[in-house]
Amino acid sequence: VIVTVTLNPALDLTYSVDELIRHATHRVRTVTERPGGKGLNVGRVLCAAGEPVLATGLLGGAIGARVAEAVGTAGVSGDFVRIGGETRRTVSVLDSGDATGFWEPGPLVTVGEWTRFVERYDTLLGRATVVVLSGSLPPGLPVDAYATLIQLARDRRVPTVLDTSGEPLRHGISAGPDIVKPNAAELSTLSKDTAATGTDEGIDAERSVGPEEIAAALRALAIGCRTVVVSDGRRGLLALSETEGWQAVPPDVIEGNPIGAGDACVAALARGLRDGTAWPAILADAVALSAAAVAVPVAGGFDREIYERLRSRVVVTSLGNRSAQGVQDVQLDR
Amino acid sequence: VIVTVTLNPALDLTYSVDELIRHATHRVRTVTERPGGKGLNVGRVLCAAGEPVLATGLLGGAIGARVAEAVGTAGVSGDFVRIGGETRRTVSVLDSGDATGFWEPGPLVTVGEWTRFVERYDTLLGRATVVVLSGSLPPGLPVDAYATLIQLARDRRVPTVLDTSGEPLRHGISAGPDIVKPNAAELSTLSKDTAATGTDEGIDAERSVGPEEIAAALRALAIGCRTVVVSDGRRGLLALSETEGWQAVPPDVIEGNPIGAGDACVAALARGLRDGTAWPAILADAVALSAAAVAVPVAGGFDREIYERLRSRVVVTSLGNRSAQGVQDVQLDR
Prior knowledge:
homodimer; alpha/beta; 25% strand; 11 helices
């Protein structure tokens, strides 16, 4: 089973309003609730794609109970560790223009709760074919929490995919995950040596991959991860391993909601890693699944027809047996 | 016991952020949760003032359970009718400037649930000294819901205070409540013959009482209520009965959070009505309690020291034995 880890899940509320006006009061027209946090989105995409998946992580309080219930309703098996704190909410306000987001801070996790999670996780590793580690860390967790989980997976020869940002990403990379999947903006924070906040979701942006990001990817490889896959929004994916480089470009631009596209990409990477699929096929799958996720309005799903249509038409180009200098010369098609 | 009725309660969430920017994503610095809805605020003020109070209304789902728990934690006795729908949330986002509010729609209430509430309410009337009816109506309730509750109270000779707006206010007035307490903006909607939405909280504004509002107040008296008390923010209160008029002005301007001041005013009116207190003393109490509520950051409380200090210094002026023409000539001190 593919195990997805969500240490800072959320109950995602989406409000639609006529137009957001600062310092005004708004009647919310419609309210939708769904489980949030990148790992839970990955789990729902895998489940929708028919893959066996198990979602784990930390949940607490009445909101946590609601998230657990919604995960089950979505058909995803869950095995969460309960914590004393209350799982956070996120509120996204949609108006005619775009979304305005408000993210509550995560609950404070105690040392004892983290220890219990690590024990539970270690048990789940016995059944895991791949582990996906996604999203931010809640307060109280050590900044190297993902490094710890990656090391335990390596000890049991379970491959890992890491999708986070800032300091947790930097520490996680040093433990040698099989794939890291930053987007361009996240890679940029790694590159700039900034003290990032350890939270990440939704910072996604229209950033593009440039020389600075490629340099950061190379550094990530040098630090310890095996493959860096950089998502670049609708421009596709760049994959760099220690010996090869690939670029995958979607054949069509799909309009829709980009939130969740990165999680669909991670879902495809995870199943490719599990099956030992060749990189060109993995990347074609990941680009098609991401684009098909953009076509549905909420994160955690994808449009099956679009996925089937695009999959065989993704253009994957080898960047050749790469050398550091060669890759630094790469210019993605614009 | 003073019975407060809250048909459309809420779980009020308050988020603090650095600065609200439309279409950006914000990290919420602090989250506070408390029971919301005007009737619950009135109940908490009365409880804090040492008055016996019982809160009733409609609550449903996990959010409703949370509201019930929080009401109990605040020390207020509650006797709510459970409904199948989920109690709404409100989200207020505070930044350096002011608050931006998002109000979820209330749950749809069924005919059976409303019937059960009316029965429960009728039972509670046997113990009630005064009934306070506050706030908006959730979807599904008849627009004359307050009129029904006022009529039942009159049948049992229990005096009533009504604080709502729009069509529910208009219908409620026709049933002859002892006091209606619109603010200037609410009175304005009554005056303009608009088809209001039946929801009201937070529409409070910097509107002031002018000739149009006074005309509307006179009309409210003509329709059936005994006394109209118009709250005019920091400018104080205007009270008009069929035979008299009074104006009450706070001695000091208290800075703070005006949300909840109207509910503190209603609390004072309710206990004055219960005790048969003379109008000048009721209004002095109401002005002082409102100002003392402004001094605390959240609705439902008040600053006891400020209340004691202001109470004896509120200036209450008789407008004389009023005639319609006389009152229309009133100009409030500015």
